[in-house]
Amino acid sequence: MNLDIIKCDNKICSLFGKRPVPTILFSKATEKREQVMLCVGEAPGEEEDKYNKPFVGKSGSLLRSTLAMQSWFPKTDVYLSNIVRCRPPSNRDPSVIECQNCIPFITRDIGFIKPDIIIAVGGVACKQLTGTKLGIVKVEGLTLPYVNDKQIPVLPIFHPAAVLRKYSLFKSMALPLLGVACAK
Ligand code: URA
Q1: DSSP letter (8 states) at residue 31
Q2: Using a 6 Å cutoff on CB, does residue 176 contact ligand 1?
Q3: How many whole angstroms separate alpha carbon 54 and alpha carbon 61?
Q4: What is the C-alpha separation between 128 and 24, in angstroms, rounded?
Q5: Residue 54, ligand 1, Cβ within 6 A
Q6: From the centroid of its chain, how far is CA 150?
Q7: CA 151 to chain centre
Q8: Among 12, 88, 120, 127, which is least packed by CB within 10 angstroms?
Q9: Are 16 and 10 within 8 A, CB to CB?
Q10: What is the 3-state secondary structure (H, E, C) of 59-100?
Q11: Is the dihedral of CA 114, 146, 21, 42 positive or negative?
Q12: Is 67 helix (H, G, I), strand (E, B) or coil?
């Protein structure tokens, strides 16, 4: 089940009026479900905006295929989402204010999905979800508490866009995910 498209009334947001990309259920457990995982990226890009789905562009496809690899997650429901729901123009990074404007939506979705683990895909998501000031290089692969509920672990990984720029980062992105898969 996907989460309904959010209605946003924040007219002072610089991204107001664009089409928000919803949180989706990417894959459903094929065996008895033991885990719910939510992967949260930064913001939709051009392809995500076009298809109204998270992680469908070039870097998103790398994340999706990693998640689908060897049926790593037969006992896991995997959701995909973003901190910022509307595409920042020209693929620029979302501003801190745009992230803060959008935070209520991921907060709502986390409350609804009740993930056992959140994967922070890249530094922007990691900072917003954990409150850390540390960059992704310092925290990737560690487990930090979710800022609103310390019981929910947040696992930061390199963003697939960074992996596409530097392929040697692939195992740093994929191995923590494999660790989550093997934990169940
Ligand atoms: N990058 C993100 O952070 N999110 C997407 O949905 C796609 C690319």
Answers
A1: S
A2: no
A3: 10
A4: 20
A5: yes
A6: 18
A7: 18
A8: 12
A9: yes
A10: HHHHHHHHHHHHHCCCCEEEEEEECCCCCCHHHCCCCHHHHH
A11: negative
A12: helix
Distance, in Å, from the CA atom of 159 to the CA atom of 31, rounded to the nearest integer, reads 28
This prediction has a pTM of 0.95
**Tally of residues, the chain:** 184
Distance CA 102, CA 111 (A): 15
- Cα end-to-end span (Å), the chain: 22
Atom of ligand 1 lying closest to residue 124 CA:
3
Residue type, 141: G
> Do the beta carbons of residue 129 and residue 81 sit within 8 Å?
no
Cα–Cα distance measured from residue 69 to residue 12, given in angstroms and rounded to the nearest whole number: 41
Q: Which pair of tokens denotes residue 81? A: 């989402």
Q: Quick one: three-class SS letters along 159-172?
A: CHHHHHHCHHHHHH
CA pair distance 77, 35, nearest whole angstrom: 6
pLDDT-based confidence at residue 184 (cuts at 50, 70, 90) = low
Ligand 1 near 158 CB (within 6 A): no
In terms of DSSP bridges, do strands 35-41 and 117-121 run parallel, antiparallel, or are they unpaired?
A: parallel
DSSP state of 104: H
User: CA-CA distance, 145 to 126, in Å (whole number)?
Assistant: 10
Say whether 45 sits in a helix, a strand or coil: coil
CA 44 – ligand 1 centroid, Å: 5
More confident residue, 52 or 180: 52
